[in-house]
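Pasting as-is:
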Amino acid sequence: MITFKAFRDGIQQGVYKVINPSVKVMIKIGVTPNMITTIGFLGNLVAAALFIYSALYVPANDFSVVGWAGFLILFSSLFDMIDGYLARTGNMCSTFGAFYDSVLDRFCELFTLSGIAFYFMKHGYEMATVVTFLSLIGSIMVSYVRARAEGLDIECKVGLMQRPERVVVTSLGAIFCGLLADSVSFDPTWILLVPQILIAVLANYTVIVRILHVKKQMGK
């Protein structure tokens, strides 16, 4: 039986094969992993700005900018895969690079989810705003618990809704919100909200799972 992890790893290896020629070119022209990490961060920053722009200046029944923000989040996530692959392939791995990548990953989620929360808040969706903040809290805490555990020399990768899953769910919600807004009979905002509900529940659940996992490992 194929596990979710095996399925995700299979997709990742497929992406690596696709980007391999581009990575070789990057190595030849002197592109560094930190450059790629920064580009991915800037892409997420623009996506967050698009959510804010849509909330402030686009009519409430026009979800096209939301869709573009989703595309940009998904596209920027590719850079998050490229930087690590570039570092390993080009023998450019460094402790600072790993640290820098991790810090900017947290910034990416803070900015994009805050942008979505602002979008909900500006259009009067109070509960959706609260849910998105819960999603943001869970997302940050999943990473924090892992980092804290690894600081104690305990591997902690258990649970659901790790960063790749959260990025995909968030971006697809925004993309489909933009694409399907005119063809659904219900409020299209739900298409953007449902992924945040999933993340809010599963990410915070993962925090609990990881805490119990660390407790169990320390008990051994």
